[in-house]
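Regression test case RT-17, inverse folding.

Input:
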């Protein structure tokens, strides 16, 4: 099964939406196998958003990610990377489909509640970036038989 990285951004923490976002992942049937609160340093943000460091808005993005601690999560499920990206919605909250986390909870393109890995390859890199191996709890769920059919897993 795939693992993916989710960050509950300061816009989620400060607006009191951590529970709401976590509830959505749990309700979908994804397993939370890692979760912790942390502050994001300039260094880790430059690495995590390396594709954006040269953009003029990067200083604002960095500031927005440092407005409060964040909650980082590792979430597991069949095709979890794609599922979580779909649940997250388009970058700009006001353009994101209603029903998605961003579409339902925000208007902004920057204060947009969650980060979610965009590919299996990046998910592996990002999980390693934010979690030590011993912080990932790869336990078995007794409900797996009900979440997936025998020929899906
Ligand atoms: P994503 O979060 O939907 O994967 P990316 O393009 O990877 O989108 O951008 C990472 C984050 O950078 C976004 O979630 C958002 O917080 C911020 N961001 C992206 N584009 C802009 C912009 O044009 N202005 C301000 N912030 C932006
Ligand atoms: Mg991205």
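Golden output:
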């Amino acid at each position: 099964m795939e693992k993916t990285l989710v960050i509950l951004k300061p816009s989620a923490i400060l607006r009191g939406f951590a529970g709401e976002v976590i509830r959505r992942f749990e309700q979908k049937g994804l397993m939370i196998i890692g979760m912790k609160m942390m502050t994001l340093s300039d260094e880790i943000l430059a690495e995590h958003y390396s594709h954006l460091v040269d953009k003029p808005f990067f200083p604002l993005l960095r500031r927005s990610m440092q407005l409060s601690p964040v909650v980082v999560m590792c979430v597991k499920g069949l095709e979890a990377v794609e599922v979580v990206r779909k649940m997250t919605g388009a970058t700009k909250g006001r353009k994101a489909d209603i029903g998605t986390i961003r579409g339902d909870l925000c208007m902004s393109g920057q204060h947009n509640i969650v980060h979610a890995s965009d590919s299996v390859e990046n998910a592996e890199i990002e999980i390693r970036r934010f979690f030590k191996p011993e912080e990932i709890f790869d336990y078995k769920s007794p409900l797996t038989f009900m979440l997936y059919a025998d020929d899906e897993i």
